[in-house]
Write the structure tokens for this entry.
Amino acid sequence: MDEFDRGEFKFMKKMNRNDPCWCGSGKKYKQCHEAMDEKIAYYARKGHIVPRRDMLKTQEEIEKIKESAKINVAVLDYVAERICAGISTEQINQWVEEKTREMGGIPAPLGFEGYPKSVCTSINDQVCHGIPSEQIILQDGDIINVDVSTIYNGYFSDSSRMFCIGSVSPEREKLVRVVKECVELGLQQVKPWGFMGDMAQAVQEHAEANGYHVVREIGGHGIGLEFHEDPWVGYIGSKGTDMLLVPGLMFTIEPMVNAGAPDIYIDDNDGWTIYTEDGSDSAQWEIQIVVTEDGYEVIAY
């Protein structure tokens, strides 16, 4: 049948109805994904961006990714029980490294494109990709994002949490709380046959209603079989736009929100740490989700 090309995204439907389905279920195509493929093709003909087949996770893949996510969540729980003022961010790195491997996993950030540590620790005006160090000691009043990513039996999971260290200012407490609300409101907009822009608009509106700005250059991503997959996920958008949400599509919701202007820069010294341009605080929460037949499922948090 037809091949639909919308920018970099391409959807192809070229199967006999009695062939084994492309998803590997063992069922005939007509009994499995044919109806869904036809629906995707309908949206493609209308000019929408639609996911490729290789972007949709099978049920078998989802179950294996969930096993990775169990480790990811457990590691963040382990950090949450111990993080406090006076420890170094390198101590967090050691906790993540040890706990991940104890549970049979591999820290996905370690060595990824040359990244030198097993976790990202981003404090106050650091937007993301902060590198753990023995010289960086958490202080009372800091806010920190701990971003954990795990490989288990070749499958990837990814989530991050914010932590308020000791007694934080009301301004920092509000930023951390509002960004978590942004994720929750965006998640409510995830449903099959909706659009990525539905989620993005909810995130953007809530951030801006509170006087904050969403970082534009960095977003979420597909994940599961690789660390970073298509689609790229932004949090500036409008309802009814961007990629069609289809059952099996898995990605992260992880808006980075600045208390001040949205502008950012990369540390020239380490080539990784990203800061707010104006020195304002930044916060991020990250969850990993999959679109289901009737909504969504949170895989990692």
